[in-house]
Amino acid sequence: MKKAQQKRSDMLQGTLELLVLRLLKAGPLNGWDMMQRIQIVSGEVLTVTPGALYPAMHRLEERGLVSAEWGTSDNNRQAKFYKLTPKGRRQLEAEMENWERFSGAVARILRDA
Question: Using CA of residue 55, residue 57, residue 61, residue 63, what is the dihedral sign?
Fold first, then answer.
């Protein structure tokens, strides 16, 4: 993979992790519910595939930002439910501050350049 493509992929990966952490702030969710909420709340602008979501969830779990346990979903199937850990809450706050700074800088350039 080319270096530019890798940077783009990393940025998108980090954005997905930020979105997931934010969703989990409200309470535990399974992967299907996370994918649906991202799509609905974004006004159908963003979609997440299982191939992107589940590796992100494993990374977050490995870093101790989320924990998971098996439970029964709304449609009566076994599903893994993820929840934010205290470390994940701290990370979310830091990432939200970074995002605000980054998106504000981009908005200023788009508006004033």
Answer: positive
